[in-house]
Amino acid sequence: MPPSPVIVVCAVTLISVLVKVLLIYKRENVLDNVLSLPDCAQLVTSGRLKIPSSLSNWWSKVDLFPSHAGKEIVRPVLFDNIPAVLKLKRLPEKCLSIAETIRGTQTTPLEHVRRSVQANYHEGVTEPLLNRIESEDLESIFCRLQQPEYFFLLWASLLKRSSPHFPRLLGTCGEVYIVENVEEVLNEEFIRSKSWNEMQPVINSFISLTEHLNHVSIQLCDVKLDNFGWDPSTQEVKMVDLDTAFFTGSLQEQFRERQCVSDEDCHLFSCRGCCDVPNRKCLVKIADNNLVRICREIFAPRFMEMGLFSGAPLAKKERLFKLAKNCGRFQMDWSDFRSAYQPEIAQ
To answer: Where are the transmembrane segments (predicted)?
Structure first.
């Protein structure tokens, strides 16, 4: 006789709870090991870095199941009494040491780190960034630089004119880096909580974000709601997950290495590529842009999921959905989209 549905539900719930508890203790142990390292321990003992206990709110999504797939820990903390997030690379992808990667070469550790950065992020390498690398503990920063998000946050912190769309990089210790916490993560609850008028600054900030990314030649390849946050104090959208961001040239190189039988084989997450079918090789060509991805993944509703246009008044929804659909299917410049997003449609 099969078990009753009640027993099955109870068993599944119990297993789920046990898995969560095990994850808590695993991540607490990892965190304890990291915080015992000299640089991190100094931040803790000085009171600059404060770690709230995750056991008091073990159901918290950010403690247990970070949306950052490449991270072992994405943990809310206080840094200099500023709400922040501590991030650590996922352990199975442990960073390589300088000694491991320099073996067999004739370069110095510093030159090796500089060459590695140039090879991986050549479009974004600036003299201030190289000077910053030289001023830090090479082993620690070499490890952090193997995490694309850290590179982009460091790069953005050194811009002459700071961007409102990058969270601030607040501090580091060893392999860990600490960024400002973005107050509201975008999700369906966020969409439901906002009136259409309240949603206008969010949509306009996304349009400005695409303009900025175009200016600095950065492509976002994991475009989804919860990879963005909303800062009510600045009225700006911020990127809270940059693990799959690329400079345009670096993304094109990713396509160059791929074989294919159709265009789908050339896609990299949200970024679309094109297949040279007769030669079975991906073209060194990006078939969409940031605005197209945001129209497709953020503005337009998807199957069983809301988009930012979902809260529009009924009389305006059809035109807005059509605009997002057209934008998501074709190359469209941010200025063209802004022109199409007319006041009589949007407000």
So the answer is: 6-25
Distances (CA, A) of 208 to 78, 156, 179, 214, 323: 30, 16, 22, 10, 17
Instruction: State the CATH class of domain 184-346.
Output: mainly alpha
* From-to residues of CATH 1.10.510 in the chain: 184-346
Other beta carbons less than 10 A from residue 279's beta carbon: 10
User: How is 132-165 classified by DSSP, letter by letter?
Assistant: HHHHS-HHHHHHHTTSHHHHHHHHHHT-SS--TT
> What is the chain's pLDDT, residue by residue, as a tens digit (347 residues)?
667 776 766 766 777 666 555 555 556 666 767 777 788 889 999 999 998 765 444 334 444 334 445 566 788 899 999 999 999 875 445 677 888 888 777 788 899 899 989 988 988 899 999 999 999 999 889 989 988 999 999 999 998 788 999 999 999 998 899 999 998 999 999 999 999 999 999 999 999 999 999 999 999 999 999 999 999 999 999 999 999 999 999 999 989 889 999 999 999 999 999 999 999 999 999 999 999 999 999 999 987 889 999 999 998 998 899 999 999 887 677 778 888 887 556 55
